[in-house]
Amino acid sequence: MKNIVKYLLVGFVFGIVLTKSEAVSWYRIYEMFQFQSFHMYGIISVAILTGIIGIQIIKRNNIKDIKGESIEIPDKEKGSARYWIGGLFFGLGWALVGSCPGPIFILLGAGFWTVLIVLFGALVGTYLYGLLKSKLPH
Q1: pTM of the predicted protein model
Q2: pLDDT in tens, the chain (138 residues)
């Protein structure tokens, strides 16, 4: 139970940070896809840099997970078609909806109930991927 409270607290803080930085703003996302502002590209760049640094710290210091087990991060498999195809679907969905999957829950928490349609679409897409996974390039 103690861990759940910690995760909820981190989630709330993360949601507040994303909201205050306007990363969940439809207008900011629209600006990004129109190449009119660096705002979202800056946020994404910081996230990528933070991820790279975090992964390197985990790999080099043999950091353990919450259960005390070693965290193993395998290298990505070679190939580019699946990354291009997946990126295109993700980007098109993001551009059409104005939200990537993470902020869906933040927007719901902020009271934007129309995002329930987006959540439903994300769940349907995930289900369809599960059905078609064996037929897709991996």
Answers
A1: 0.69
A2: 777 888 889 888 988 888 888 888 888 888 888 899 888 899 999 999 999 999 999 888 888 887 888 888 888 778 788 788 888 988 888 888 877 777 888 888 888 898 899 899 889 988 998 998 888 766
Give yes or no for a contact between 99 and 109, defined as CB atoms under 8 angstroms apart: no
Q: How far apart are CA 82 and CA 120, in angstroms?
A: 24
Q: What DSSP string runs through the chain?
A: -HHHHHHHHHHHHHHHHHHHTTTT-HHHHHHHHTT--SHHHHHHHHHHHHHHHHHHHHHHHT-B-TTSPBP--PPPPS-SHHHHHHHHHHHHHHHHHS--HHHHHHHHHTT-TTHHHHHHHHHHHHHHHHHHGGGS--
State how far the Cα of 27 lies from the Cα of 95, in Å rounded to an integer.
Answer: 11
